[in-house]
Amino acid sequence: MEERVRGIGRMARETGLTVSALRFYDGAGILVPARVDPHSGYRWYGDDQVAPARLVARLRRVGLPLADIRRVLEHRRDPAVVDEILGAHLVRLEDGLADARRELSAARALLDLELPVPTVLRTTTTELAAALRAVRYAVGADPGLPMLTGVLLDVDDDAVRLAATDRYRLAVATLPDASVTGPACSALLPVDLADEVLAALGTDGSVTVAVDGPVITVELPGGTVRGRRLDHDFPDYRRILRPSSAHRIDTDAAELRAALEAAPTRTVPHGPDGAEQTASVLSLGEVEIGVNREFLLEALDAGAAGQLVLELDGPITPLALRDPARPGNVSMLMPVRLPA
């Protein structure tokens, strides 16, 4: 029985693809017509091409790249391969949505600077002091990177966080019991202002932090501290935070300090000018990793003194230190690359 064929117009109506899209996918080698009239160049499609074309239409609606569409068509009878391709694309879409939400939040913050609506958070002096101490050590000091020379106050619908980084270290601390009124916002506190607030947090009680346009006001039991936010965009630290890791080691601060004290060291190249640095070599489970001893000790000093969870994916990925009692808090250290 001879297979029925349809012209490109009917194929477009049956599949949801436009005529121009069908021509494009022909040129890309994804949906090649069953035959093409050698004189007129008119394209004809067979019955067995309708379902793949409808599949292509749906995949393009969700933005699947052409290379992945081609792989799906080639392996459409292999569910494992198809699931892997579609799953990876779904993760990209979810990451993109999260990025879009953050960018829109930042755009709202810029609009709020023009028509400011204050964001006010209330917490305790104990909680704020603990969060500031947990991140203060990671504040950058390079004047060439002014966006790293402060402590980020990040308020959104999910949580209130403080964050700091100098590119080699990242520290994030949450204020789990803080109450918030006003819109989401991100404000970069100058390190001098953060230090002034930290020094004034000696008395137990409640504390209020208000972000009103460029001005940050902290009401403390003993008085008021006020300053102006830094006009710089802090890096998107959330993209560095990972939900899970390949290796997870339960330990405590004292045990890790002892391991660091006993760890062998290696001298390794550092930078393009032939400089060298000393790395302490830790064996964490199955992974041997080089760390900057002073950086790790500072992270331990800033965190809790009890149980810790160490997370990493490999010897050249950041080492994460987490406090099980405060799952939202994390310190991340870039490793020192060890020569093979």
TrEMBL record:
**What Gene3D superfamilies does UniProt report for this protein, alphabetically?**
1.10.1660.10, DNA Polymerase III, subunit A, domain 2 (3.10.150.10)
Keywords attached to this Swiss-Prot or TrEMBL record, sorted alphabetically, are: Cytoplasm, DNA replication, DNA-binding, DNA-directed DNA polymerase, Nucleotidyltransferase, Transferase
One GO BP annotation is: DNA strand elongation involved in DNA replication
Keyword Nucleotidyltransferase tagged: yes
Q: What is its main location?
A: cytoplasm
Q: Where in the cell is it found?
A: Cytoplasm
As one GO molecular function, the record gives: DNA binding
Q: Which SMART domains match?
A: HTH_MERR, POL3Bc
InterPro entries named in the record: DNA-bd_dom_put_sf (IPR009061), DNA_clamp_sf (IPR046938), DNA_polIII_beta (IPR001001), DNA_polIII_beta_cen (IPR022637), MerR-type_HTH_dom (IPR000551)
Gene Ontology CC = cytoplasm; DNA polymerase III complex
Q: Name one Pfam family in it.
A: MerR_1
According to the entry, every stretch annotated as the HTH merR-type domain falls at 8-75
Family assignment?
Answer: Belongs to the beta sliding clamp family.
Name the chain's protein.
MerR HTH family regulatory protein
